[in-house]
TrEMBL record:
Molecular function terms from GO: ATP binding; ATP hydrolysis activity
A GO cellular component annotation in the UniProt record: plasma membrane
Gene3D superfamilies attached to this UniProt entry: P-loop containing nucleotide triphosphate hydrolases (3.40.50.300)
SMART domains for this protein: AAA
Designated name of the protein: Amino acid/amide ABC transporter ATP-binding protein 1 (HAAT family)
Pfam annotation, one family: ABC_tran
Span of domain ABC transporter: 2-250
Keywords, ordered alphabetically: ATP-binding, Nucleotide-binding, Transport
């Protein structure tokens, strides 16, 4: 679904992404791991149109999407979440979801004057959709809570819910487990797996929790110093000497004791 070819992103003399090439298969939950500073989030930002590449190409379903702005990619079904959740804190959880779909009739002054009935019908449909999403994510009891009052894990679930309010095809999740307790992280993991299996979502996940990656992701791609270092199953990654060296600066002699950790 996504193909990245020889992608570079430079900030002055710093090469955050330095010739990365990779593919994300349709229907997969692909993990993206690597040491801090490996270029993972910068890669996400370039793919998702938040940063222009210095060079290289990005393709979605065979179409060149290099440098397209986020709103254009949004309408093509490419969405991303952030390590720090972005919510409208003074609005309710349900209202946050209802804000997501674009092209709503109430967005224009003309429709607000003469299309009130249509606006009310759309709002009813959006509310029903939002309630369905919240029930799917098991946070329907929070629908009338102000989003700013949610815990970190609940905000991550809300961000995942936003992707369900539109026709998402591929979702890039940036450290979905950051600041999330184990119980809520399991809930988030369950939702990702269900969206993948039941609704055909494709995911690419940056995450430092290797148990979470091992549970959800196949394949796993490893980045280091702006490049793709290795790709394979989690077991293949854990036994890869280059990966262990990149993470720990040690060799095979210490891998069994130290393990691989992001």
């Amino acid at each position: 679904m996504i193909r990245v070819e020889n992608l570079h992103k430079h900030f002055g003399g710093f090469h955050a992404v330095d010739g990365a090439s990779l593919e994300i298969a349709q229907g997969s939950i692909t993990g993206l791991i690597g040491p801090n500073g490996a270029g993972k989030t910068t890669l996400f930002n370039v793919i998702a149109g938040r940063l222009p590449p210095t060079s290289g190409r990005v393709f979605m379903a065979g179409e060149d999407i290099t440098g397209l702005p986020p709103h254009d990619l949004f309408h093509r079904g490419l969405l991303r979440t952030f390590q720090i959740a972005h919510e409208f804190s003074s609005m309710t959880v349900r209202e946050n979801l209802m804000m997501v779909p674009g092209g709503q009739s109430g967005e224009t002054i003309w429709n607000a004057w003469i299309g009130r009935q249509r606006i009310l019908e759309e709002e009813r449909e959006l509310q029903a959709k939002a309630d369905e999403v919240l029930e799917f994510l098991t946070i329907d009891h929070l629908k009338d809570e102000k989003a700013g009052n949610l815990s970190g894990g609940q905000k991550k679930l809300l961000e995942l819910g936003r992707t369900m309010m539109v026709d998402a095809k591929i979702v890039f999740l940036d450290e979905v487990g950051a600041g999330v307790n184990r119980t809520l992280l399991n809930t988030i993991g369950d939702a990702i797996v269900r969206l993948n299996r039941e609704r055909g979502y494709t995911f690419c996940v940056i995450e430092h929790d290797m148990d979470f990656i091992a549970r959800l992701c196949d394949p796993v791609i490893v980045m280091a110093e702006g490049r793709v270092l290795a790709e394979g199953t989690i077991d293949q990654i854990k036994s890869n000497e280059q990966v262990i060296e990149a993470y720990l600066g040690t060799g095979l002699k210490n891998k069994d004791a130290a393990g691989v950790s992001a």
